[in-house]
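Minimal example, chain plus fe (ii) ion.
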Amino acid sequence: MNRNILLKWLNWFYTLEMSQVELYLNQAKQSNDTYLTGVLLNMAETETKHAKSIKEIIIKLDSQPMLVDKLLSQIIGLLPAQLFSIIGEYNLLWYNFTLESIAIHDYRFFLSFLDINSKIERELAVVLLNNMIEEDLHRHWFKGQWDSFKRNK
Ligand SMILES: [Fe+2]
Ligand SMILES: [Fe+2]
């Protein structure tokens, strides 16, 4: 893949991961539910690891990670400090589920374009696949919580 296109994609994923870190940390701060707080902090840690793994590849490509402002503001700009109390846990679970689903979709799409004959792209594929698996676990958790919230309402 052309280096510039590769870097554009990587910065996109880097921004997505960094946005999720910010989002989950903010949500954890505002949550009164100890278990949910614990899960969000755990996920924020995983997203930090994802961002770091992507940053390392960007650096290997002799570049520096850049945040895509538009994406960042789309994800967290909508989220004022008191968002939790405004949208409630039900919608929060759904929002996070949607975000994780977008991440999985984009990872899967990008993975299908990687050239396994290129060493760096092969290495990248391993990193992205691992990130994608963890997003999938997150997605299922949010969906499960959302479903039981719905049932108990
Ligand atoms: Fe992630
Ligand atoms: Fe995730």
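The domain at 3-152 is CATH 1.20.1260.10 (Ferritin). The mean pLDDT is 90.
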